[in-house]
Amino acid sequence: MSLKTELNHDQGIKKQNRNQKPGTWLRIQLLSSRDIQKFKILPTLFSKLLFLPVTAMNVSWLLFMIFHYPPHEVAELFIGLSAHQIVWWLLGIAVVSLFHEFGHVSALLHCGGIPGGIGISMHYLLPKGWSEINDTWRLSRTDCLYVDSGGVFFQMLITWVIYALNGSWLNSRAIMAVCVTSAQMVLINLIPNAGSDGYWLVKDAFGIEDVSQSAKSMFRKSSDSSQSIKPNEKIIIISLLIARNIALIYLLTVVIIVFSAAAARLIQEISSLLVEISSFSPSLACSFLSNSMSSVMVVIIVLQNVISSICQMMYGRRT
């Protein structure tokens, strides 16, 4: 191997390991490489005829979900989930996560690569898909962008199809929660933090590994004019920095409002239980667990995401 080939190979292996973060456990393979290659129709979605129109629809759907479901409505949606709806919600997230990984491997197949296995794991308390795409080291820069974007491409596609079916036919609160959660997951994944799809997109498209560090370097005065950044690169860095910060502020607002609403609901349920403690019975306990399940799950999952973010900041590496 040449030095360039070795670097590309190392980068491909690192892309394979992008899902192996702190808090990941119960890694189960569902399909082998041979099984995946039987899905010949899926890679055709990355053809020039379909990719750009579907991407435009995907982006339109994502913007619609962000503006149509502000943080307080997201909180109301999750707080109203019952215990069995929580179970269906988690199963729905698992399905959406698997489609995300099908997007990566389908893009790899379209570009002539051979994927490894695909499966599901748990990231703290949420199901998360994984795929082996280390064959990307053989691909061109343009093809790498297909693989980088393939996950969110498939995830948005399947989610807005589910959203349309639910709105016109099923009218399920749990499925609506899956769609809203999927939109939040896509937005989180597009933020160029270490290991995310957004990180690889920015790295492969512009050669930028750290948006914040690049911005600091850009604004830092340097006497070496040979290291100056070109005007078009400055526009890219500033645009990425603004988009990332807007997304982070929005997501932080969602976390605070959802957590506050869930904690308030949980406190209210506990207070009601204490008032009726004199007439405590198994049926009362079951009723409490059923009524407060959504609040408990939301509180736990929000805390899990906070812990996950802290772990990523402490132990995450620029892979």
Properties at a glance:
disordered N terminus, 6% strand, three-stranded antiparallel beta sheet, 319 residues, 11 helices, mainly alpha, globular
How does this structure look, described?
The protein has 319 residues and is mainly alpha-helical. It has helices spanning 3-16, 33-36, 48-68, 71-79, 83-110, 141-170, 173-190, 197-206, 211-219, 231-275, 282-315; strands spanning 24-31, 118-123, 126-131.
Short structural description:
By secondary structure, this protein is mainly alpha-helical.
What value does the average pLDDT take?
80
The general outline is globular
Percent strand equals 5-15%
Rg from C-alpha positions?
A: 22 Å
Describe the main β-sheet briefly: 3 strands, antiparallel
Strand order in space, largest sheet: 1-2-3
Topology, number of strands: 3
**Spans of at least 5 consecutive residues with low confidence:** 1-6
The SSE string, one letter per element, is HEHHHHEEHHHHHH
Number of domains: 1
Distance between the termini: 21 Å
